[in-house]
Amino acid sequence: EVQLVESGGGSVQAGGSLTLSCTPSGFSFDDYVIGWFRQAPGKEREGVACISGADGIAHLSDSAKGRFTISLVDAKKSVILQMNSLKPEDTAVYYCAAEDARYGMRCPLPAKYGVNYWGKGTQVSVSS
User: Fold this and answer.
1) Which DSSP category does 76 fall into?
2) What is the DSSP string of 95-109?
3) Are the CB atoms for 28 and 8 separated by under 8 Å?
4) Phi, psi of 55, deg, nearest 5
5) 4 with 53: CB under 8 angstroms?
6) Helix (H, G, I), strand (E, B) or coil at 4
7) Which of 44, 63, 54 is nearest to 111 (CA)?
């Protein structure tokens, strides 16, 4: 069974940090590109970060650069998103997503189309 399991969401004050984790079940990250997306109430879903499971090459959105880091950890058993200097505007449900890279998919992943595997999401809330 193919699944993505997310963890690490929570509530923090502005300036704080959280680390989100995404772990696959039923497949290996080796042949995939893995992304983190977020969606706030009333807003469009947007890409935050992306990484290639094959070579570790990463991509960050403009809002994430300088604050967030995406990494493959535990021998590619998981992908983490380290979020520092969090702001209230980072408040959203964060989703892990993955797509097979063997036919040319590369980072950044599209926000709406062409991504087959999604997690259920984890809430991140940042207060002032």
Assistant:
1) T
2) EEEEEE-TTS--SSP
3) no
4) -125, 0
5) no
6) strand
7) 44
Cα separation, 74 vs 123, in Å, equals 24
Which conformational region is residue 64 in: left (phi greater than 0), alpha (psi within -120 to 50 degrees), or beta? alpha
Give the pLDDT confidence of 53-106 residue by residue, as tens digits: 999 999 999 999 999 999 999 999 999 999 999 999 999 999 999 999 998 899
Burial 61-73 (b: 16+ CB within 10 A, else e): beebeeebbbebe
Please report where in the chains the tokens 């497949």 appear, as a residue: 27
Q: Which residue has the tokens 């449900």?
A: 93
Helix (H) or strand (E) holding 57: none
11: which 2 tokens? Answer: 């509530």
**C-alpha span between 73 and 117 (Å, rounded):** 19
